[in-house]
Amino acid sequence: MQILRKVTDNDALVYYIKTDLGLIIKIKSNPSLNNAETKQMLIDVAKEMDDKLRSNIE
Which domains does the chain possess? Predict the structure, then answer.
């Protein structure tokens, strides 16, 4: 997973990330999360999206 961009939209942080399989997704994050929680959330979402893509291909 690679973070491509991090922007602020009103009070929410918006991350654009590229997953290991090459999907580019937009994720809104709660600004109350600390850095470790945010990073884990992004990793979890990227992994879930890659798993969904793999299951659709099979």
Answer: 2-57 (2.40.50)
